[in-house]
Automatic annotation (TrEMBL):
Example GO biological process: regulation of DNA-templated transcription
Keyword Transcription regulation (UniProt): yes
Single GO term (MF): DNA binding
Species, as recorded: Evtepia gabavorous
Name recorded for this polypeptide: LuxR family transcriptional regulator
Annotated keywords: DNA-binding, Transcription, Transcription regulation
InterPro entries per record: GAF-like_dom_sf, Sig_transdc_resp-reg_C-effctor, Tscrpt_reg_LuxR_C, WH-like_DNA-bd_sf
Coiled-coil segments: none
Annotated HTH luxR-type domain residues: 189-254
């Protein structure tokens, strides 16, 4: 179950993502913040490049910076990578490497021994970044054996972040970063899909600000009993029974909005 603090961290991750104005910013700001949501030992983002008929990943952005040596070695041995198809997918793809290949095959591969063994990498999450059918690159998170495996819940979180990363990566590579949150994941769109009334849309907006029932009732100028009726009607339309189930559903649909942080007063 997702707790309030995890949703807040998720929002901070998106905040850093949408603050990025260059490709380099993804490594400097976004990746370090992502570590708070999904702990990792190493991480990298690489963009897709085409050279004639061949397709490969270049320009690694890494945390920590020293891990760039592993990814530079990877570029030399990329032809031997059994996951190279990831950079060619026309839809965003996420997998845990240990689910794809057995341990012995993985640890004996040329890629592992030449690139990742010096860093004692044991497993990874690989996310293919794609926007509008165009492969853009890959995000990789790595752990050592003592770190433990990536959980299914962490795959869910990365897939949710990836929905936003796809759009932002496309904008950054095109040199046109948006000024705010992604317009493709608005509450208005999800509200329309589920047939919410105007009052239910207002309630949904208040929920995504993590306000309690009393605060919401005051903001909407309704009684507690009336608020509960609105909750029940909205939950029924979404097919959920609690606000946290609803928030998880918004994440799954890529519709949890980025709430810009309140500027600190001088």
């Amino acid at each position: 179950m997702l707790e309030k603090n995890q949703f807040l961290i998720f929002n901070h991750v998106l905040s850093e993502l949408y603050r990025c104005r260059t490709y380099q910013d993804l490594g400097d700001a976004f990746l370090p913040m992502l570590r708070m949501l999904i702990p990792y030992r190493y991480a990298s983002i690489m963009r897709r490049a085409e050279a004639g008929p061949s397709i490969h990943l270049v320009d690694p952005l890494c945390v920590p910076a020293a891990f760039a040596e592993a990814e530079r070695r990877y570029m030399r041995f990329a032809a031997d990578d059994y996951t190279a198809w990831l950079s060619c997918c026309r839809e965003a793809t996420l997998f845990r490497e240990s689910d794809l290949v057995g341990e012995q095959q993985r640890l004996r591969s040329t890629i592992y021994q030449e690139c990742y063994q010096p860093f004692e990498v044991y497993d990874s999450l690989q996310y293919g970044i794609v926007c509008n059918g165009q492969p853009l690159g890959a995000l990789s998170l790595f752990r050592c054996r003592e770190d433990g495996p990536f959980s299914d819940h962490e795959l869910f979180l990365l897939r949710s972040v990836g929905t936003h990363l796809n759009q932002q990566m496309a904008a950054l590579l095109a040199g046109t970063p948006p000024a705010g949150g992604s317009p493709d994941h608005s509450l208005a769109a999800v509200a329309a899909r589920h047939g919410l009334t105007l009052r239910e849309r207002q309630l949904l907006e208040e929920l995504t600000r993590f306000r309690n029932n009393q605060e919401i009732a005051e903001a909407l100028s309704v009684r507690a009993s009336t608020l509960q009726k609105h909750f029940q009607n909205m939950f029924r339309k979404f097919g959920v029974t609690s606000r946290w189930e609803l928030m998880r559903l918004l994440l799954e649909e890529g519709a949890l909005p980025w709430v810009p942080p309140v500027p600190q007063s001088e």
